[in-house]
Specification:
This protein is mainly beta and 206 residues long. Helix content is 13%, strand content 34%. The strands form 3 sheets. A 7-stranded antiparallel sheet has the order 1-9-6-11-4-3-2. A 4-stranded antiparallel sheet has the order 5-10-7-8, with no helix packed on it. A two-stranded antiparallel sheet has the order 12-13. It is globular, with a radius of gyration of 19 Å. The N and C termini lie far apart (47 Å).
Length: 206
């Protein structure tokens, strides 16, 4: 008899929210610009959820970011406070996609989907090449099956109302929107503020 235990994993937060249709209409009314790679649209406002017009969406995002940090990760609330850095809307027309990237100058990132269907494009989270949780890349080891421990990437098909939160250093991409309808989501970044002290010799204020 034996058992296995996954250790030192990367925690990914998934939740679903019943969203009012007005939240999507408010997002659609924003000013949009085409990305330089011509693979999608972003809102001109990069602090979208600071606008009182989006306060209901802001409250939803703040609630789930707090759940992730203080309940899932068990960060000390008395020491570290969540600070929303920036938020922006993303629109994908048919055929639009997103290249692999991460979010710098941030600790916690996430996406809430205001309009997404079964073929609107998958979110892919990529395992970093330097993350040697099993074998280093000295050689290629073949597996007969895949799990959270051995997979190189994680594919997720978001639906309207889904929210995904993850550490900002996790690289992610989006496959092509194959649906005739536009896909809308809002991306967000957070930082942890506060003063962290280790013993009596190291103090850092963020």
């Amino acid at each position: 008899m034996f058992q296995s235990q996954d250790l030192f994993g990367v925690p990914i937060y998934l939740a679903h929210v019943d969203l009012q249709s007005q939240l999507l209409e408010d997002l659609k009314s924003e000013e949009w610009h085409r990305f330089p790679a011509s693979n999608g649209w972003g809102t001109t406002d990069k602090h979208l959820l600071d606008n009182p017009k989006h306060k209901d969406l802001r409250n939803i995002v703040d609630e789930h970011a707090s759940n992730y940090v203080y309940r899932t990760l068990q960060v000390n609330h008395a020491v570290h406070q969540l600070d929303m850095l920036n938020t922006w809307g993303v629109k994908h027309n048919t055929g639009d996609w997103a290249q692999k990237h991460d979010h710098v100058n941030s600790m916690i990132s996430g996406i809430i989907y205001l309009s997404s269907e079964h073929d609107s494009g998958k979110l892919i989270l990529h395992k970093q090449l330097q993350w040697n949780n099993i074998f280093p890349r000295t050689t290629f080891i073949e597996f007969t099956g895949f799990s959270a421990s051995t997979a190189e990437e994680w594919n997720y098909q978001p639906r309207t109302g889904d929210i995904v939160i993850f550490p900002s250093h996790v690289e992610h991409s989006v496959t092509k929107n194959l649906n005739a309808n536009d896909r809308y989501c809002v991306a967000f970044n957070y930082f942890l503020r506060g003063t962290s002290t280790v013993g009596d010799h190291s103090t850092l204020t963020l």
